[in-house]
């Protein structure tokens, strides 16, 4: 686990040591990401989707919950780009609402999982001993369940609903972050600069927060991105199973679930578009994650 | 080998213990009084008390846990709160559908993934390689339930080749197993490719070529055989993930398996069934992982002595 901005990883001759230093970790990150065209394209597509999703309420003539009983189950047309559903609601407007929801679910659930995982991984790697044993045994157990099953089990206890889906997805993201940060911490704990900080009288909190954590961040960023795709897939799966958000909410998985019956009756557009939306979003997050991994942390490829 | 086997088996004990505690506590984690929740909304106080006694909820937690484990070991999983049928009988009825679905999915996806991975590694950066890897990353990203619906739309609704629900005929296996296996095939292709690329650089591969062996022998015998070690591990792990994935796919195809049974039980708040299913799924997953570990030990003798 190398820190993000180690000078020796930059190509010699592309920049002087002065400019490299002023660029900082963020600039370095951006420089390497720019070389990955597929990842960059994926990021731009995601940005476009989300920008449009947030602009949609002001741009589109229909809201996601506007009923129109005179125009139910219409195919795609110039007025309704993705057609209408069984209540005459505009499917495109619902898709855009679903995009916002998916982003909200993806980022908050992985964010919560990452926050707890990072703290657990730092403490486990830094202090070792029983803290380490307990953290790692717990993550073994969480790893012992396939992700969807774990999420289903959690929702079975907490009941369906948006916040419970977020909790379920967060819990199953947690152990992987704990492991990544723990292994980074173990490696960095022995480094000379941590030793120096300790000799200078820095407290444990300062050492962990300012000297070790930044060194593990590149791996965390890569994993965070890859995880968002998986989280969106899991959350939409839960909704599809009827264990996620309320079926009436404009969410991709829920739309697919109600669309199934209409599909069997020949109305293909109710299922094709929501699925396509999930597919494109998850694909872009995975491609972006692949690109970030290649750019930032080649070692992750083996896991 | 025997020592290794025993060691792996012993390592499983604490994990099974923790999982059994979690699954046991599941009923207690339900919000409110579990006996009242389980007895249903219209239950009288007497019904609730009867439910409490029937599920041993009136005893202390440790006693309840011991009872829970004893019931598990003797395969007495209780009776469904909804139908009153023994849970074990329900599971045995649903098991074959899930079993055949998993086996069919794993079989085609591993073979297909292996071949695609080998071809990709063999012709790196060729058109075939790029298309296979684009397909693979799509296979990982595509929502499985959507793929199932698309296949159903084309092959069942429009072409009328297959049914849309249930498991009445072997041909009913085709669409669900393609759907469930797609993600596995994608992972296998990516994984085989990277394992092959690592091995292809080894000295013994160069030696095999230098000996004048035909390319086909070099690739399929010398390279693939060594690359197979990590690949087998991956295939075994995928089997576990098929269990999770099958829950969703069963829902799409209205498949009469364990996954549909679990979702139905959750919807009807039939928590005795949910509890038994969660335990079964976790045990299955653990046993598959154990089998993979053992297989790994057989393929690669070095790992036994770690």
TrEMBL record, chain A:
It is a multi-pass membrane protein. Coiled coil: none annotated. Gene3D superfamilies: MetI-like. It comes from the Bacteria. Keywords: Cell membrane, Membrane, Transmembrane, Transmembrane helix, Transport. SUPFAM superfamilies: MetI-like. GO terms for molecular function: dipeptide transmembrane transporter activity. Residues 1-16 have a biased composition (Low complexity). It comes from Mesobaculum littorinae. Residues 99-289 form the ABC transmembrane type-1 domain. This is Glutathione transport system permease protein GsiD. InterPro entries: BP-dependent_transpt_permease, MetI-like, MetI-like_sf, OppC_N. Part of the ABC transporter complex GsiABCD involved in glutathione import. Probably responsible for the translocation of the substrate across the membrane. Residues 1-23 are annotated as: Disordered. The chain crosses the membrane at residues 38-60, 104-129, 141-159, 165-181, 220-245, 268-289. Its main location: membrane. Pfam families: BPD_transp_1, OppC_N. GO terms for cellular component: plasma membrane. Belongs to the binding-protein-dependent transport system permease family. It is found in: Cell membrane.
TrEMBL record, chain B:
One of its GO terms (cellular component) is plasma membrane. Keywords: Cell membrane, Membrane, Transmembrane, Transmembrane helix, Transport. The chain crosses the membrane at residues 9-30, 99-121, 133-161, 173-191, 227-249, 278-299. It is found in: Cell membrane. One of its GO terms (biological process) is transmembrane transport. It comes from the Bacteria. Residues 95-296 form the ABC transmembrane type-1 domain. Part of the ABC transporter complex GsiABCD involved in glutathione import. Probably responsible for the translocation of the substrate across the membrane. Belongs to the binding-protein-dependent transport system permease family. This is Glutathione transport system permease protein GsiC. It comes from Mesobaculum littorinae.
């Amino acid at each position: 686990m190398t820190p993000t901005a180690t000078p020796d990883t930059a190509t010699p001759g592309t920049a002087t040591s002065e400019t490299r230093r002023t660029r900082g970790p963020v600039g370095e990150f951006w420089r390497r990401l720019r070389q990955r065209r597929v990842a960059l394209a994926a990021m731009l597509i995601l940005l476009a989707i989300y920008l449009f999703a947030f602009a949609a309420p002001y741009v589109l003539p229909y809201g996601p919950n506007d009923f129109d009983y005179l125009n139910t189950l219409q195919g795609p047309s110039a007025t309704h780009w993705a057609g209408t559903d069984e209540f005459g609601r505009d499917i495109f407007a619902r898709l855009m609402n679903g995009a916002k929801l998916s982003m909200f679910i993806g980022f908050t659930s992985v964010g919560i999982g990452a926050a707890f995982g990072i703290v657990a991984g730092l403490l486990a790697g830094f202090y070792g001993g029983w803290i380490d044993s307990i953290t790692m045994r717990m993550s073994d157990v969480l790893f012992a369940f396939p992700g969807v099953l774990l999420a289903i089990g959690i929702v079975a206890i907490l009941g369906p609903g948006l916040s419970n889906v977020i909790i379920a997805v967060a819990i199953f993201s947690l152990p992987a972050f704990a492991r990544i940060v723990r292994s980074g911490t173990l490696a960095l704990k022995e480094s000379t600069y941590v030793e120096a900080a300790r000799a200078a009288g820095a407290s444990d909190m300062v050492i962990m927060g300012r000297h070790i954590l930044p060194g593990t961040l590149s791996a965390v960023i890569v994993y965070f991105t890859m995880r968002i795709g998986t989280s969106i897939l899991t959350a939409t799966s839960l909704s599809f199973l009827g264990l996620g958000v309320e079926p009436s909410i404009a969410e991709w998985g829920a739309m697919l679930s109600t669309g199934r019956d209409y599909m069997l009756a020949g109305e293909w557009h109710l299922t094709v578009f929501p699925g396509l939306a999930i597919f494109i979003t998850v694909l872009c997050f995975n491609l972006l994650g692949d690109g970030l991994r290649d750019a930032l942390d080649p070692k992750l490829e083996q896991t | 080998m025997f020592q290794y086997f025993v060691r792996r088996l012993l390592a499983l004990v604490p994990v099974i213990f923790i999982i059994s505690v979690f699954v046991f506590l599941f009923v207690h984690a339900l919000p409110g009084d579990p006996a009242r929740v389980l007895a249903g909304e219209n239950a009288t106080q007497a019904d609730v008390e009867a439910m409490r006694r029937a599920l041993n909820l009136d005893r202390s937690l440790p006693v309840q846990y011991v009872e829970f484990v004893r019931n598990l070991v003797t395969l007495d999983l209780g009776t469904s709160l909804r139908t009153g049928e023994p849970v074990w009988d329900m599971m045995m009825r649903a098991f074959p559908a899930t079993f055949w679905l998993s086996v069919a999915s794993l079989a085609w996806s591993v073979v297909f993934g292996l071949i695609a991975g080998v071809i990709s590694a063999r012709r790196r950066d060729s058109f075939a390689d790029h298309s296979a890897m684009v397909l693979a990353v799509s296979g990982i990203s595509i929502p499985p339930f959507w793929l199932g619906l698309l296949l159903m739309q084309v092959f069942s609704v429009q072409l009328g080749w297959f049914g849309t629900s249930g498991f009445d005929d072997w041909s009913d296996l085709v669409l669900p197993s393609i759907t469930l296996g797609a993600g596995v095939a994608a992972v296998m292709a990516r994984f085989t490719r990277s394992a092959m690329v690592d091995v292809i650089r080894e000295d013994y591969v160069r030696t095999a070529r230098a000996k004048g062996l035909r390319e086909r022998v070099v690739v399929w015998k010398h390279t693939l055989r060594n690359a197979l070690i990590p690949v087998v591990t991956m295939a075994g792990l995928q089997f576990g993930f098929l269990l999770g994935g099958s829950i969703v796919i069963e829902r799409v195809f209205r498949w009469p398996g364990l996954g549909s049974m679990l979702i139905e039980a959750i919807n009807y708040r039939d928590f005795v069934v949910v509890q038994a299913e969660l335990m079964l799924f976790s045990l299955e997953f653990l046993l598959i992982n154990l089998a993979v570990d053992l297989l790994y030990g057989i393929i690669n003798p070095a790992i036994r002595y770690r």
